[in-house]
């Protein structure tokens, strides 16, 4: 973790999955297996985050095209609606303590979110977690901006949009590759491996 101290940041930038919102991908697998009449293990063995997954996250292919690619790679003949049901079943509530931490932080400095995500997930979490997400001034979503973490161009785009020097932004993410990508572009970083990490970082910032 970057060393943080009071006054060392002008903006906070949060990943969403497993930092703000809890994610349980096994719920998607279980849902799809139920519809397909197969064992969840059979789907787990075949599921990969492939090129179609990345293109879907950048808004470059449609939901129908992505679900068609899943139908082929997973070998299950379920409908788009059934894929969508499982796809959105992964949201498992808010991360512990985050509902208390975000409003407290927002009183002291602007909060932003930067997430690799896709249109169906955005449609779902924007409604389901509207209150919690309302603490962010702006959500930078890969499917809207056409750029994904950990690419340098993605971080540069978000830093420019926030309008604060990179070294005055603290970025929270659960994936090491995204943390490294952000650090390489000059952001302060916090690798979130447990819910306590966010609270500890805010404490170090005097929040």
Automatic annotation (TrEMBL):
Pfam families for this protein: Hydrolase
InterPro entries on file: HAD-like_sf, HAD-SF_hydro_IA, HAD_sf, PGP-like_dom2
PANTHER family on file: ALPHA-D-GLUCOSE 1-PHOSPHATE PHOSPHATASE, FLAVIN MONONUCLEOTIDE HYDROLASE 1, CHLOROPLATIC
Protein name as annotated: HAD family phosphatase
